């Protein structure tokens, strides 16, 4: 029937503009939007960071991250099994270390019976199909909250790398599938790669926190692992300046030369330009970390009724895919996987 009803409407307001290209045509119905969609988010894109604690209690809430709990080892095993059943490929556990176990050199990090190593062994034994990605960094273990060892006010580079290498070996020995150096010392990827190879861990992967910025968005994480009150100063002498982009390219190039199998950009959404640039330039497996502060912003706004939390969650994760990320570390992982399983 011509003219179509909307054409008659247009007529009433002065007629068609006579456009050849109308990008709205492809958006007119759900089937069409699905057909022309450029990026897809699947459960295979998700890495779930979780918090461990030594406790008889199964869970305690992280105050600054509503909906996130610290888990004891038994509960971490159960939740890892749940994540695996949902199809989440990998988890990234972080420990809340008792304050009495922290010291200036982070010596508890090298204890083969520490919380992380025991948890990794337990999860590997019960849920062998899930990948386990473990941070190499000393901040959960140091009394000053820094990722390395200090001489006065200075975080020492090479001394820290020697300790981080030992930490990586302890984690690999416990069964970590991937070592993720998050310390931002120079040369740590190469040193860890060499040590892993020399000790029979040739197949242990390295996901480098290649471009990790000195960011305010880590605040809630430091509440989760109990370093917020203890951190002396800030991390600007080793984590990157938020103003820099070329420097991220240099960091990624070095980490790849030193043997990184995958690279990560952190934080996530505020640094999407870096994600896109790194993926465009290097064409290697590239991940983004939607950090604790990004999680907290979405959840807090949703709790106030200021935005639709689920929609903001899905949109933020789709943005990572659009930017070129191969996957995302996100505290939303189980929630997203459940949603995708239910049909999006
Ligand atoms: C520690 C580490 C941090 C995060 C991951 N590993 C904190 C920091 O560098 O202070 C932050 C993760 C998050 O905020 O979700 N090396």
From TrEMBL:
Entry GO terms, CC: cytosol
EC number: 4.2.1.24
Cited Pfam families: ALAD
InterPro entries associated with the record: ALAD, ALAD_AS, Aldolase_TIM
Pathway listed: Porphyrin-containing compound metabolism; protoporphyrin-IX biosynthesis; coproporphyrinogen-III from 5-aminolevulinate: step 1/4
Keyword Metal-binding annotated: yes
Binding residues for Mg(2+): 251
Gene Ontology molecular function terms on file: porphobilinogen synthase activity; zinc ion binding
Keywords: Heme biosynthesis, Lyase, Magnesium, Metal-binding, Porphyrin biosynthesis
Reaction catalysed by this enzyme: 2 5-aminolevulinate = porphobilinogen + 2 H2O + H(+)
Enzyme class: lyase
Active site: 212 (schiff-base intermediate with substrate), 266 (schiff-base intermediate with substrate)
Family under the similarity heading: Belongs to the ALAD family.
Subunit structure: Homooctamer.
Name of the protein described by the UniProt record: Delta-aminolevulinic acid dehydratase
Native organism: Bosea lathyri
């Amino acid at each position: 029937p011509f003219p179509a009803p909307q054409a008659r409407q247009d007529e009433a307001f002065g007629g068609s503009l006579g456009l050849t290209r109308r990008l709205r045509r492809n958006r007119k119905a759900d089937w069409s939007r699905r057909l022309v969609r450029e990026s897809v988010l699947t459960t295979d894109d998700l890495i779930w960071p979780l918090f461990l604690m030594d406790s008889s209690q199964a869970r305690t809430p992280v105050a600054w991250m509503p909906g996130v709990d610290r888990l004891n080892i038994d509960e971490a095993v159960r939740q890892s099994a749940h994540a695996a059943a949902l199809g989440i490929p990998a988890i990234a556990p972080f420990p809340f270390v008792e304050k009495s176990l922290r010291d200036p050199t982070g010596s508890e990090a090298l204890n083969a019976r520490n919380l992380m190593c025991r948890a990794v062994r337990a999860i590997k034994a019960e849920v062998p199909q899930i990948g386990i990605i473990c941070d190499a960094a000393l901040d959960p273990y140091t009394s000053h909250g820094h990722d390395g060892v200090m001489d006065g006010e200075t975080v020492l580079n090479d001394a820290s790398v020697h300790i981080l290498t030992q930490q990586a070996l302890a984690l690999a020995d416990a069964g970590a599938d991937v070592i993720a150096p998050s310390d931002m010392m120079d040369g740590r990827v190469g040193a860890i790669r060499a040590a892993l190879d020399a000790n029979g861990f040739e197949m242990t992967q390295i996901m480098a926190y290649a471009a990790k910025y000195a960011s305010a968005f880590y605040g809630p994480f430091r509440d989760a692992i109990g370093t917020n009150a203890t951190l002396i100063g800030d991390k600007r002498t080793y984590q990157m300046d938020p103003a820099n982009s070329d420097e991220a390219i240099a960091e990624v190039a070095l980490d790849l030369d030193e043997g990184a199998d995958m690279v990560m950009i952190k934080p996530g959404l505020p640094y999407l330009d870096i994600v896109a640039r790194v993926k465009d330039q290097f064409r290697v497996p590239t991940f983004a970390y939607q950090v604790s502060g990004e999680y907290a912003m979405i959840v807090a706004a949703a709790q106030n009724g200021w935005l639709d939390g689920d929609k903001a969650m899905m949109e933020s994760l789709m943005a990572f895919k659009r930017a070129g990320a191969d996957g995302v570390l996100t505290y939303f992982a189980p929630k997203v996987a459940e949603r995708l399983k239910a049909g999006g």
